[in-house]
């Protein structure tokens, strides 16, 4: 399995909604507004970690206390946040959809700024395809890079958005993993997490 990556001022968010699966997102500057009508991205349950605060968006479930689930994403560091949302409930081309997750990993080894693009693109060695070109994004004053890519999830076409950002001496790997069928819909959960994100130190 591919390794998990992993004050409202001007926010440049990497996950401006995509126009199609496998295409890189378009950064959005300023307040973030989904392209289609949906609840406010700031609705959800507050969530606090040692390094940041954000929300668990409505419809998503906090799974960080589930040790067996956390182990799936902790190969390269400490899972600081793990939320999941079930599939939209549709069967597409006779293939079952999958449960989406957004995970935040504190990497064991910080990634220097000049190595972030290479780190992101290393997912290709684990079977990822259709990698987008790395693009910049900003969360609460810190700047990182992100890519999107396709992957197989036990026979279901999957799509991920993988973001690397450093704050202080810690490198965070923020990842949305879902199916290609639900990517555009469930990307709004990632957008909500990033919009509400505030560093605590």
Structure description:
With 201 residues, the protein is mainly β. The chain has a single domain (44-199), classed as Mog1/PsbP, alpha/beta/alpha sandwich (Protein Transport Mog1p, Chain A, 3-Layer(aba) Sandwich). Helices cover 12% and strands 37% of the residues. It contains three helices and twelve strands; from the N terminus they run βββαββββαββββαβ. The chain has a seven-stranded antiparallel sheet with strand order 3-4-7-11-10-9-8. Strands 1-2-12 form a three-stranded antiparallel sheet. Strands 5-6 form a two-stranded antiparallel ribbon. The radius of gyration is 15 Å and the shape is globular.
Instruction: Tell me the series of helices and strands, N- to C-terminal.
Output: EEEHEEEEHEEEEHE
Number of helices in the DSSP assignment: 3
Supply the number of structural domains: 1
The amount of helix comes to 10-25%
**Average predicted local confidence, pLDDT:** 81
Beta-strand portion reads 35-45%
Please compute the radius of gyration using only Cα atoms: 15 Å
Features:
Protein Transport Mog1p, Chain A, seven-stranded antiparallel beta sheet, three-stranded antiparallel beta sheet, 201 residues, 12% helix, globular, mainly beta, 12 strands
Brief sketch in words of this structure:
The protein has 201 residues and is mainly β.
Give the SSE layout:
Elements: E1 44-48, E2 52-57, E3 61-62, H1 67-71, E4 77-85, E5 91-92, E6 95-96, E7 100-107, H2 116-121, E8 135-139, E9 142-153, E10 156-167, E11 170-179, H3 183-196, E12 198-199
């Amino acid at each position: 399995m591919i390794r998990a990556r992993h004050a409202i001022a001007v926010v440049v968010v990497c996950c401006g909604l995509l126009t199609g699966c496998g295409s890189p997102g378009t950064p959005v500057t300023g307040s973030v507004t989904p392209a289609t009508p949906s609840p406010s991205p700031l609705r959800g349950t507050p969530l606090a970690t040692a390094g940041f605060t954000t929300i668990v968006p409505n419809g998503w479930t906090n799974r960080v206390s589930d040790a067996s689930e956390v182990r799936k994403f902790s190969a390269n560091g400490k899972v600081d946040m793990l939320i999941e949302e079930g599939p939209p409930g549709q069967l597409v081309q006779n293939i079952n959809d999958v449960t989406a997750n957004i995970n935040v990993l504190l990497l064991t080894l910080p990634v220097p700024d000049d190595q972030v693009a290479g780190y992101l693109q290393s997912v290709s060695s684990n079977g990822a395809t259709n990698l987008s070109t790395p693009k910049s994004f900003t969360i609460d004053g810190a700047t990182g890079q992100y890519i999107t890519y396709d992957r197989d999830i036990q026979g279901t076409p999957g799509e991920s958005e993988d973001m690397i950002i450093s704050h202080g001496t810690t490198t965070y790997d923020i990842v949305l993993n879902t199916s290609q069928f639900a990517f555009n819909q469930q990307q709004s959960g990632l957008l909500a997490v990033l919009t509400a994100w505030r560093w605590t130190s």
